[in-house]
Amino acid sequence: MRGFLGHDTVVRTTRILAGVVGGVLLAIGIAVLIMPEVVSTALLSLSTGGAGINSLRADVGALFLGMGVFAMFGAITRYRWLLLVPMVLLGFVVVGRVISMLLYPFPTPTMGALAMELLFMAMLGLALTSHAFSGKEQTRPEAARVLLGRRFLVSAGLVVALVGAGFLFRPQISSLVWSLGAASMLGQSALDDLPDGLHVGLAGTGAPMPDAQRVGISTFVIAGEHLFIVDIGPGGTLNLELMRVPLEDTTAVLLTHFHSDHIGDLDELMLKIWTHGARTEPTLVMGPVGVETVVDGYNQAFSLDAGYRIAHHGDAVAPASGAGGRAEVIDGFGADESVVIFDQGGVTVTAFLVSHAPVDPALGFRFDYGGRSVVLSGDTIPDETLMAQSQGVDLLVHDAMNPDMLNVMTRASESRDEPVAGAVATDIQTYHAFAEETARIARDAGVQHLVLNQILPPLPASILHPGFLGDAHRIFGGPITLSYDGMLFSLPSGSDDIDGQWLLR
Ligand SMILES: [Zn+2]
Ligand SMILES: [Zn+2]
Questions:
Q1: Do residues 304 and 346 lie in contact, with contact meaning Cβ atoms separated by under 8 Å?
Q2: pLDDT per residue over 453-473, tens digit each?
Q3: What is the pLDDT of residues 13-36, one digit of tens each?
């Protein structure tokens, strides 16, 4: 190693690099203690939503794997002092818990975890000290000297001082975070920089059964200069806003059918489209026969609210002429059970009939722009018309359920004497497609990428994904995405690419 780069230089450089890594990790750790939500969303992408799974697995996994590996090595090798590593890490875990309990006295279900962590620390400490005093530990004097040495104590004191300073200056940090965060809340949307093409955003991917990670069904499609919102289930408007969709630019709201999980948030959506852009025309809502009943009903129910908004904000925000919605019935289907409902600026939107009996008519939609194409199935069992419309499309978004999983729910609810829940789990199987059936459709239609939404039953953990998909991957060779709220698929014009990004965490 002697020569151009001396051995000493290498040792010194690598030590400095290790120190830098340690410093960065330490800074993140201290920041997590002071402002956990800011760091976890801005830096670690930690959340319980779909986008957070990656970091949850990586970061929290690393903490426990690291503690476990060092505890095992400390236990089975003669380097017992390695047990200090998990002990110190557990110590920081306990510090984090205690800080949270002091800052938020509202009871959180973490007492059991805290007790377990303290117990583990005690067990590791016992193993460490018993070994140290057994006389077998050759390196004890060295380790003890290091731990009680000036360098270690000064570093430890520095960490404590930094954490203390962080808490001392919480009001100032709070103002700084708000001044930076407030600007970004009003800042540019991720959608402003999208390339010309077709873009499909999943604002809601769940079904009526409650799912903590998926709200009611809602999808937005940006096609060239136009924005369409297809269905608006409960919670959909909030997610559209969190995804920074420019609702004021909505060309039309399209409804596939009138099940509550597809229209339950229409009132809120129409209000936001109106007031975000001070629009002077009511929101155009297109759907099958019956759409007038839905829109008129919402208009009436929210006429008082509209009056308050007009009186309070005036024309600058809420011009009276823009309140509510204007219904337009989709009909005139041809022999192939489809009809073009929009054809402007190179954007074609086709509505077609699907099979969702006793709901009739129920629609699916196909979007074409810039040589790219997308089909949204709406709610349907495997359907010939949908198959014809999906020939060679880039992206097929299809509703999907797993009957075996639902049958397990039915049996569980029957054994618990809750027959209604069981009956629902059985009934819904007659009007949705099975995950494996959607794979067959994607294969036979030559679809590039299959996206499954309106997931039934709810899948609260990603370990359930393989069970839900069954043989789908064997049937369809292309990519299959099990959807989460917040996903955006981008299909740039004149290319074959399908790019993905998260607009929600
Ligand atoms: Zn339905
Ligand atoms: Zn539905």
A1: no
A2: 999 999 888 889 999 999 999
A3: 877 887 788 788 888 888 888 888
Q: How far is the CA of 148 from the centre of ligand 1 (A)?
A: 68
Q: What is the pTM of this model?
A: 0.86
Is the Cβ–Cβ distance between 269 and 312 less than 8 Å? Answer: no
Gap from CA of 397 to ligand 2 centroid (Å): 13
Task: Tell how far the Cα of 146 is from the centroid of ligand 1, in angstroms.
Answer: 68
Given the residues 8, 59, 192, 261, select the one marked as catalytic: 261
| Residue whose C-alpha is closest to residue 259's, from 374, 378, 420, 406 | 378
Q: Where are the alpha helices (DSSP H) in 35-110?
A: 36-42, 53-55, 61-76, 84-103
Enumerate the β-bridge partners of residue 201: 220, 488
Which segments of 390-434 are extended strands (E)? Answer: 395-401
305 an active-site residue? no
Element (H, E) at 452: strand 449-456
Decide if 350 contacts 389 (C-beta within 8 A): yes
Contact 354/363 with Cβ under 8 angstroms?
Answer: yes
Taking the C-alpha atoms of residue 132 and residue 154, their distance in angstroms, rounded to an integer, is 24
